Amino acid sequence: MTTTNSVGNGNEYTRAGDGMPGNADRNTGAGDGAVRVLGGGARRSRGGPAEIAIVGGGLGGLTLARVLAVHGITATVYDQESGPGARSQGGMLDIHEESGQRALRAAGLLQEFQRIVLPGGDATIVRDRHGTLLHADDGGNGRPEVDRGQLRELLLDSLPPGSIRWGAKASAVRERSDGRREVVFADGSTVTADLVVGADGAWSKVRPLVSAATPDYLGVTFVEIDLVEADARHPAAAAVVGRGSLFALGDGKGLLAHRETDGSLHVYAALPVPVDWAGGVDFTDRVAVQDAVLAHFAGWSDDLRALVAEADGPLLPRPLYGLPAGHRWPRVPGVTLLGDAAHLMSPFAGEGANNAMLDGAELGEALAAHRGDVEVALAGYEGSMFPRSAEAAAGSAQGMTMCLASDAPAGLVAMFGEAA
């Protein structure tokens, strides 16, 4: 589903396919936290083997680690979670042919990825606030849907054992007197590296080394909702959503939903509210939250309101933030960013996870192509990433404006009509 890719902090997870490098312990033996050596003949520009640390184990950071491994270059990923199953990884992702799939091809995982695609998950329905069907298609647009957790697991299981240090929450990154970088973790431990890659999401601890930019609230908060065993327990809501994704839009707000691989419905209520709106709602009281959300959908179809009224489990607030479109920084030796750390954007074009993965692939390929000079590799990577991500961020912003316009879903229906 195109509207969920950037929600959360970018830590996403998947399942292994056949024939990938073994990792039976799911990289739990990350060792003592020492940064691994950039192998395969890679050298830092001043001579000697370069050391690399990837801060953040989301899709972008894991793609980078995998592509480096494909080229015989090792790196350690440092992730704040206690383990691969520490938390839910969110909903479905549509993986774009020109970006996410391109990255999986570079990682040697495209065939395994195709095994976890949800058949029919790329079908799309658009309705207005009354539930009137305005558009329906069966997908087939080169953007298959996959469970975010399964995709992350696929990447995790493709890495050599010991590639990940879990429970490593970065609190700061600082420059040493010898020009190298020191990553400081919340438990007081540190690691030193010649290259630090910030793949640590919206509130990156690496970003301040290269940029003073911080994310701004985009004026919209998602409330995340799940309806389990939808066909059996919530048949009316299941019928409204259909086989794949639903966009129900109107009055500057929306109900966005998709089918998941376990038969549940994952729903986002998109609300144009102040940044502190969630602080005024008791999210420990499910009924109170449902009432607060449903107040925004007064007069909407009862079948659409059921996506909120029939929620199973807690409802969770997800305020949307973004960096300025076109965010860039001057070349800073020994450090770079990827994914949300570099170009956090609106999720309304499905570009967040896809661009993060492509960042990881392109950075890995650049480092492999310029083993003798890391700085040449970083300059080449950033020179390509900056304009690509600026275009994606601008498109994402336009997508949010279109979906939450006063006349929505007219613009979205017209867009689908032009693409048909």
UniProtKB/TrEMBL annotation:
Query: Which residues bind NADPH per the record?
Result: 87
Annotated stretches, region: Disordered: 1-45
Which positions in this protein are listed as binding FAD? 94, 148, 340
Describe the location of the FAD-binding domain by residue ranges.
51-216, 335-370
Q: Tell me, which GO biological process terms does this entry list?
A: response to antibiotic
SUPFAM superfamilies cross-referenced by the UniProt entry = FAD/NAD(P)-binding domain (SSF51905)
> A Gene Ontology CC term for this entry?
cytoplasm
Main localization, broad class: cytoplasm
| Matches recorded under InterPro entries | FAD-bd, FAD/NAD-bd_sf, TetX_monooxygenase
Catalytic activity annotation: a tetracycline + NADPH + O2 + H(+) = an 11a-hydroxytetracycline + NADP(+) + H2O
Query: What's the cofactor?
Result: FAD
Named from the GO MF annotations, one term is: FAD binding
Could you tell me the EC number(s) of this protein? 1.14.13.-
Please describe the quaternary structure of this protein: Monomer.
Which purpose does this protein serve, as stated in its record? An FAD-requiring monooxygenase active on some tetracycline antibiotic derivatives, which leads to their inactivation. Hydroxylates carbon 11a of tetracycline and some analogs.
Similarity comment: family membership: Belongs to the aromatic-ring hydroxylase family. TetX subfamily.
Domain remarks: Consists of an N-terminal FAD-binding domain with a Rossman fold and a C-terminal substrate-binding domain.
In Swiss-Prot or TrEMBL terms, this protein is called: Flavin-dependent monooxygenase
Source organism per UniProt? Actinocatenispora comari
Taxonomic placement: Bacteria, Bacillati, Actinomycetota, Actinomycetes, Micromonosporales
